[in-house]
Structure formats: structure tokens, C-alpha cells
Amino acid sequence: QVRAERHIAATGSIEQPLMFDGNDLPGVMLSSGAQRLASLYGVRPGKTAVVATVGDRGLEAALALHAAGVAIAAVADARPEGADEDLTSRLDWEGIRHLPGTAVVQAFGRKEVKGVVVADLGPDGKPDRGTERGIDCDLVAVSGGTVPATSLLLQAGAKSRWDSDANAYVPDQTPEGIYSAGAVAGHESTAAQAEASGA
Predict the structure, then answer these.
(1) What secondary structure does DSSP assign to 99-113, as a single string?
(2) pTM here?
(3) How far does Cα 96 stand from its chain's mean position?
(4) Above pLDDT 90, what percent of the chain?
């Protein structure tokens, strides 16, 4: 038996789905899964996609899918503003339609996705039904943000606390000799991790 004196948990984060009518139809998948199929395995998960997102991860997925030969009909970004300027410029350069302040409210089709209905979000964050319009597609890649994968740390006796910067519950008060790093600690990027550790 080998018993380490120190353990570092770098379990990452888990992408969350989005809730809308028809989100269980074949052809609706997490953007990270669609991106992995296209980038790592050369498999196009669809011919024409709508990407629904609440953050920059969805914009990155749209660009990766586009590079893999998937036509991007639109990116429905729930944020009215705040998207990364470099990413939005790249979307514009590639001719990908970016719809800020917009959400998918329904995916339609019988045995598979045939299209979606999108709507503008009002000041209360709810869809304005008067702005609904349809977009044809056979793939809906969704990104509802991420949550740190803290299960192992919590089983080891760590507590969790709300981190407003990460907008998620992160591990806290870990037992002696157990540390967390990366996305599980609320740092999605190397730069954020370095800043947090004072490097």
C-alpha cells in the first residue's frame, strides 16, 4: 500500500445543461461534448448547429465546431453584454451570427432536432414571447456554465463556500494535506490560478 502525505485534487468542472422545451431530443448536447467530438475525433455531431450559452465557453465551442465544418446558424447568448471581445470579433470575422440577450426556448422535431425557437430576454431575464423566431438546425450545443467537480473533496471532509468571483460553490476547509487546484477551486484559467496563488 502507498499512502501519500499530500493530495492535490484537480478534478476540474462539470458543464451544465440549459432548460427548455425539447432539451431531451437527440441532437441536443453539451457544447463541450460536441466540441470534443469535432476537435478530438473528427466527428461532426451535426450539419447545422445553434449554440445556446450563458458564457464564453459556448462562443469557443461555436468557433471550434465551425472550424470542424459544422455550419453555425446562430449563437444564442443569454448575456446582453459582457462577452469576450476577442471571441465576438472572431465570430464576426467567420460570419457567425451572435445574438446577445437571447435564449433558446424550445427545440422541435419528433425523433431528432429539426430546429429551435429563440426569443429575446427581457430585463427580468425571462423570454419575451413576442420576439420568438425559429431557426432550422439539426444540432443544439448548450452551455449553461460550469460547476466545480467537488465530490471527492467533500467526501474527504472538505466544506464548500460560495465564491462570488467564480459564481459557484468551491471547496473550503480541506483536511490537512489535501489541496485543490484549477477549475475545481474556481479558477477556469491558468492565469486565474496563478493570480489566486500569488504567483
Answers:
(1) EETEEEEEEE-SSS-
(2) 0.84
(3) 18
(4) 72
